[in-house]
Design brief:
The protein has 92 residues and is α+β, with helices and mostly antiparallel strands. It contains 1 helix and 4 strands, in the order αββββ.
Length: 92
């Protein structure tokens, strides 16, 4: 009975160690920022101006007052047919 208990304990310990190793391998969640003027019509994350409710409510592609979350540091370098993305709303 003692050998069986030892074997089960070793198996449980190995499973815990494997779980900890897998958890350590998960990449950290990337930082995101709001980027205005880069979303396609109906694909914004929120804030699409007067008369709209929120996510998915932008009316036109690259609407300046609608934002989409993008990886931090990439917004202003994102190029669209209407110019670059902006960290603040773009006035039409």
């Amino acid at each position: 009975m003692s050998t069986r208990r030892t074997a089960l304990s070793m198996l449980a310990l190995a499973a815990l160690a494997q779980g900890a190793a897998l958890a350590a391998d998960k990449p950290a969640k990337a930082a995101m920022e709001k980027c205005y003027g880069v979303s396609l019509a109906g694909q914004n994350d929120c804030a699409a101006g007067p008369g709209t409710s929120c996510a998915g409510s932008s009316k036109i592609d690259y609407q300046g007052d609608a934002w989409k979350k993008v990886p931090a540091g990439t917004c202003v370098s994102t190029k669209t047919p209407k110019g670059h993305g902006s960290l603040t709303p773009i006035k039409a």
